[in-house]
């Protein structure tokens, strides 16, 4: 009998949460099928995709007919449903709570503030064919700076990973957001050695699946640095 | 040492934690943090929560912030009835899905209404541009529609037949605009029926007690320290305008 890949994920590799899902699946060798949804081509607005997810967003997971949106929910579901090492989403209440604390905080800080820089430096100029709005970008960079201070100060105080001694879903979600501005040639961790070390540790722990997921972003990075 | 829960009931996430703890008879010490008096900036509270926000808990040496994390932690630690945070993986995933979406999809929008319509102009005497308010009200309609069509659909509660943490986190945000006179339930019978069900499950007395604050928002705004006002003004401008 042919192996049925009952797990499907709808992804756009330019999307940070999509990369987190992709990396998790590949790193943990979970059998799955990737269905590409190119946001820049409006493939999230087709009647078919809208039927699947009326919010028209990615990632989406379909497990034998069970449709799930929101990367946090998807990652937590997969971490529990498949035999992955426990460190990803620990079972002990205090340790799990620390991961939940990060994934909640992430929504209001790392995700919007890092994404905003990429949107302003890459997406908006590309779509409008206008130059980057410098004052707005400066404010966004300041806000991101404050957020990175908080990330370091709270989550990396005396530990190698965001929630303790081992990599968790928190590090995976965070690192994908932090990589995004590279698409515009900007390394937001420049001059932040503690965070740079953390990023190296995360990349090492994820090995090949990290670079594989970031291919499209690296290509974008090459394009933008070659313009300088 | 008993569980300490740091709360200011004007805050929506504080209400969800308060309601959950009371409803489930979780013994705790209520540590009041009056945000408008700047009590979140005390040295003592800084040791409990680095981010200086409420709600926060201290359980022995263990400290935790973020209401979502606190709620799931309390559900697991105190073994509350399964329906709050179901063990069934797919039902739990539905709860997680709402808890994730709501940060920007609901709280980020409904949470601003009381501020922009009442607190900022009346208590802090800062002008809110009409276009800003109008645009926020349009966004609110979008959030409520998404809530009804995607998360509630034709079910009695978000996760299905029974109330869960998702409904609790949703209700406190959806109630908040009422403090500014924005009646979100007026033309939404489905939403209103859901609210009644949630209130009945929580218990009307506890529900009403927890929400008392928002109905006193205007009164409360008059009691804000003048010196506190000056400290808050630049922060508020940065956050909302």
TrEMBL record, chain A:
Family to which the UniProt record says this protein belongs: Belongs to the GST superfamily. Theta family.
Gene Ontology terms, MF aspect: glutathione transferase activity
Every GST C-terminal domain range: 92-226
GO biological process, one term: glutathione metabolic process
Pfam short name (any one): GST_C
GO cellular component, one term: cytoplasm
Enzyme Commission numbers on file: 2.5.1.18
Protein name: glutathione transferase
Residue ranges of every copy of the GST N-terminal domain listed in the record: 5-86
Main location: cytoplasm
CDD domains per record: GST_C_Theta (cd03183), GST_N_Theta (cd03050)
The keyword Cytoplasm is annotated on this UniProt entry: yes
Summary of subunit composition and partner proteins: Homodimer.
Keyword Transferase found: yes
Subcellular localization(s) per the UniProt record: Cytoplasm
Enzyme class: transferase
Annotated InterPro entries: Glutathione-S-Trfase_C-like (IPR010987), Glutathione-S-Trfase_C_sf (IPR036282), Glutathione_S-Trfase (IPR040079), Glutathione_S-Trfase_N (IPR004045), GST_C (IPR004046), GST_C_Theta (IPR040077), GST_N_Theta (IPR040075), GST_Theta (IPR051369)
Catalytic reactions on record: RX + glutathione = an S-substituted glutathione + a halide anion + H(+)
Keywords associated with the record: Cytoplasm, Transferase
TrEMBL record, chain B:
Record GO biological process: glutathione metabolic process
Provenance organism: Paramormyrops kingsleyae
GO MF term (any one): glutathione transferase activity
Protein name: glutathione transferase
Subunit details: Homodimer.
Domain GST C-terminal: residue ranges: 88-224
Family: Belongs to the GST superfamily. Theta family.
Catalytic activity: RX + glutathione = an S-substituted glutathione + a halide anion + H(+)
GO CC annotations on file: cytoplasm
Catalytic activity, EC: 2.5.1.18
Intracellular or extracellular location(s): Cytoplasm
Keyword match Cytoplasm: yes
SUPFAM superfamilies named among the record's database cross-references: GST C-terminal domain-like, Thioredoxin-like
CDD domains: GST_C_Theta, GST_N_Theta
Span of domain GST N-terminal: 1-82
UniProt key word Transferase: yes
InterPro entries in alphabetical order: Glutathione-S-Trfase_C-like, Glutathione-S-Trfase_C_sf, Glutathione_S-Trfase, Glutathione_S-Trfase_N, GST_C, GST_C_Theta, GST_N_Theta, GST_Theta
Domain of life: Eukaryota
Pfam families per UniProt: GST_C, GST_N
Keywords: Cytoplasm, Transferase
